[in-house]
Amino acid sequence: MKIGNIIFPENPVFLAPMEDVTDMGFRLECKRFGADMVYTEFVSSDALIRHVNKTKEKLAISEEERPVAIQIYGREVDAMVEAARICEEANPDILDINFGCPVKKVAGKGAGSGMMRTPDLMVEITQAVVKAVKIPVTVKTRLGWDNDSKIIIELAERLQDTGIQALTIHGRTRSQMYTGEADWSLIGDVKNNPRMHIPIIGNGDVTSPEICKQRFEETGVDAVMVGRGSIGSPWIFEEIKHFLNTGNRLPKKEFTWYLEVLKDLINKNVAYSGERGGIIHSRRHLAASSVFKGIPDFKKIRVAMLRTESVEELFSIIDNIPNQFQLD
Q1: Distance CA 120, CA 24 (A)
Q2: Which of 60, 70, 81, 86 is the most exposed place for a label (fewest CB within 10 A)?
Q3: What's the pTM value of the predicted model, to 2 decimals?
């Protein structure tokens, strides 16, 4: 598989762009465990061209995380073109356009997956962005607006004609948000459409190595993108890679090993965002991490982790978990 001049290994696995999740610290952690490409949090084109500092900070990338894509969203052609050029100056490997975010503050204003109701404008924006920058442009989108308007097969061809170099499809409509199960059958239909020649990346409900392998085999997609299954569990990429290569599950590590990974993530976030900001960025990972699932009566400790505002106190809580629950 190839996007622009980037050559990926067989069956590549990508980290999905997620707001308030895929900051640099987490991207580096996922890269450490084998993610073949990582994406920034999505960036508002309107905020970017207004030079909002908090938005411009999202453009920061590290050489250690390459290949890395910056993702932008918006609903105005001129704003998206200007934002794309600003993003290009940050020197990402790829520029991705978000036509998939379903949250009301984005889609309700016609951006993100709201674009599924205006496919002509979606194509116009994509074509203009492709022409505006020299780096590869890709798109991430959904199946359609709702169950009665799953337009992805025709839309994929139209987007391909604009000159994008890969297309990521999340297997839900906007109306579904994140409920129900992702439908990969239409993703497979797009991939197996003889008129499609760009890489197709599948996304949605990939939460285990077995599911990832199944999606590759059933649909033939060129890459699989992992989103929510990675939150608080960056090691999922190592687990997936091992399973894809060997057919066997990677043996579980000692419980304390996973805790050290989470502490490393917290340290990375603190290094980039300061103590308070780094802790805030880490809270979602601590709340969602698979390593804590199944531990009885863990709620009190989870709440304590999410309330603390000092790294010293947070690490003290984490370090005491094995003793408190008699975990190996």
Answers
A1: 34
A2: 60
A3: 0.94
Tokens of 71: 């993702």
Q: Which residues are catalytic?
A: 101
Pick the CATH number of 8-246 from 3.30.390.50, 3.40.50.20, 3.30.1520.10, 3.20.20.70: 3.20.20.70
CA 314 to centroid of chain Cα atoms: 26
For 34-72, how does the pLDDT look when each residue is reduced to its tens digit (9 = 90+)?
Answer: 999 999 999 999 999 998 988 999 999 999 999 999 999
| CA dist 115 → 15, 58, 168 (Å) | 23, 23, 15
Query: Measuring CA to CA, how many Å separate 240 from each of 61, 70, 290?
Result: 25, 24, 15
CA-to-CA distance for 325 and 321, rounded, in angstroms? 6
Say how many Å lie between the first and final Cα of the chain, rounded. Answer: 41
CA 152 to each of CA 1, 119, 169, 184, 317: distance values in angstroms, whole numbers, following the listed order: 22, 10, 8, 12, 47
Q: How many CB atoms lie within 10 A of CB 63?
A: 7
DSSP for 36-75, please give it. SBEEEEEEEHHHHHTT-HHHHGGG---GGG-SEEEEEE-S
In the three-class reduction of DSSP (H, G, I as helix; E, B as strand; rest coil), residue 95 is classed as strand
User: Shortest CA distance to 225 belongs to which of 6, 8, 23?
Assistant: 8
Percent of the chain with pLDDT over 70: 99
Q: Is the pLDDT of residue 179 over 90?
A: no
Cα–Cα distance, 97 to 109 (Å, whole number): 16
Torsion of CA 262, 264, 267, 272, to 10 degrees: -100
Residue 29 confidence (pLDDT): 96
Average pLDDT of the chain to the nearest whole number: 94
DSSP per position, 114-180: GGGG-HHHHHHHHHHHHHH-SS-EEEEEES-SSTT---HHHHHHHHHHTT-S-EEEESS-TTTTT-S
Distance of CA 8 to the CA centre of its chain: 17
What is the per-residue pLDDT across 283-297, written as a single tens digit (0 to 9) for each?
999 999 999 998 888
